[in-house]
Amino acid sequence: MDTARTTGYRSSDRSYSRNVKLKKRKKRSRVNIRKIGIIAATTLLAATAGYVIYSHLPVVKVNKAIAAGDKYSQDADYEAAIDSYAEAIEIDSHSVTAYSNMAGAYLSIDDYESAKQTLYNGFIETENEGLLDNYHAVIMNEAVKVINDQQADMSTVLAIEKVLSEDNNNSDAIGLLDSAYSRVFDDAYSYDMNALFRPDSVTSTEGSAKFTYAEYEAFVKELLSIYSASPSDELKEVILKYATPSDISFTISVSDAASYNELLATIESTVSGSDSITSMRECLTNASDVLGIFSGIFEQLDVGNVDELRSFVVSDEYLTLRDIFLKDEPTPQENTTYVPISREAIILNNNEGQWSYRFLNFEENPSTDGVITLWANFFEDDGVQRNAISYEPKSIEDNYYPHTKYSVTYLYSYITSGKATKVPKMNYRLDTTVTTQDGDQIETIVGDWGGENEWTMDIETIESRIKA
User: Fold this and answer.
1) Which stretch of DSSP H or E encloses residue 403?
2) What is the 3-state secondary structure (H, E, C) of 176-228?
3) Which helix (H) or strand (E) holds 421?
4) How many Å apart are CA 323 and CA 467, to the nearest integer?
5) Mean pLDDT in runs of 10 for the chain (468 residues)?
6) Could you tell me if 425 and 327 lie in one domain?
7) What is d(CA 353, CA 278) in angstroms, rounded to the nearest whole number?
8) Mean of all residue pLDDT scores within the chain
9) Is residue 38 domain-shared with residue 74, that is, in the same domain?
């Protein structure tokens, strides 16, 4: 009994235990179903709102803005296209496509500056080399157009050089610089030798950009820097071309001429020399030497000491220089009978690759601080060669008239001594001529100037006595 009861109890207990376990399993199953139901509901909710969330993703917005811009471009509504691309860039400043397409829209309306700015900004933001290449392509295409339209000037080659500065091995840029050389100077500066490096002489009607020597020097030095970083025979030839910045003639200030001579020396040491560079340096060096001869007398004349011309016109330095012209000896200074010497600027002239120079005369530069003219005319008195020189002082407030000219001659002539006794001797003569704006001239001559028997007479009196 006890055993049976015990066994039955145990059986009943096992049944109970199984029932409990089943209940527990069922309970867990219901919990699991409820959990699955919750997950399914959540997934359904996400699916319902998915399009709304996706459509607000930045990448989708950017693509929609670009697509809109492309559609506007197809319809030739470029302003609207630019606005759409700008919207895309505002959302994502690293969208290469937006920058590229926006630049294309600007080019479609011939707005090269905005196209270049867009591409360059895009490169800065994205560091995408393709944008930089396109930026360079726009610059060079613009340069080609300007050259073909015969509107090129030094600003054109500066733009091309910018490409080469950022891409040292850009052979297209080197080739375009080479092609631009003659067109630049023929188109922009050949009409006036004073235009290049002398911006004040460029009038707005000519349409060429103002350009200074300092800008030219920076241009050449940058080419030398590029060459040092990436040398090539093609770039070497371009540098040697631009070393003498014209194939006709140009004017350069005296102060810039010294810097130019130094620049040419740097080109020779960095790249190589050329016949043109050698010839140009001879001109610049000679001009400096000649001004050295006249520096002292200019200082005296600047303070009104015209009397100093007496000793200067017979000095060894002056006569040595005078004889070069008188005897037609080789010199880079242009050989003429009356040779102007001034301190403001020189004109450099090209004759088949050989350069010569001369200083500006008074008419070419009325704002000069004064011009001395060396006389190289052959004139002898009893076998004695005359020495002559003239000086035109600085204008008063840059007004050419009234214009004064002093001419000093050291000659062998008769002077009156004592009671009308004429004595032949070497003496100085000063001729002062004042020209008015009406063309009238007042001329006075001082004979035996500075001597014991000095006399003064106006030209009319002298002429009347000669006629008598």
Assistant:
1) strand 403-417
2) HHHHHHHHHHHHHCCCCCCCCCCHHHCCHHHCCCCCCHHHHHHHHHHHHHHHH
3) strand 421-435
4) 35
5) 37 37 38 32 38 61 93 94 95 94 95 94 94 94 90 90 94 94 79 68 45 92 97 96 88 94 98 95 98 97 96 96 94 95 95 93 90 93 90 86 94 73 86 92 92 83 56
6) yes
7) 10
8) 83
9) no
Q: Is residue 278 part of a domain?
A: no
Element (H, E) at 350: strand 345-351
**For 382-418, how does the pLDDT look when each residue is reduced to its tens digit (9 = 90+)?**
788 899 999 999 988 777 889 999 999 999 888 775 5
Last residue of a domain, one of 89, 124, 149: 149
Residues 235 and 327 both lie in one domain: no
Output the pTM of the full model.
0.77
The three state secondary structure string of 126-165 is: HCCHHHHHHHHHHHHHHHHHHHHCCCCCHHHHHHHHHHHH
For residues 346 and 453, membership in a common domain is answered with: yes
Could you give the CA distance from residue 430 to residue 410 in angstroms, rounded to a whole number? 9
Q: Are residues 141 and 212 in the same domain?
A: no
Range of the domain at 321: 289-467
Residues 300 and 195 reside in one and the same domain: no
Do 180 and 145 meet the contact criterion of CB atoms below 8 Å apart?
A: no
Cα-Cα-Cα-Cα dihedral of 234, 243, 216, 364, to 10°?
A: -150
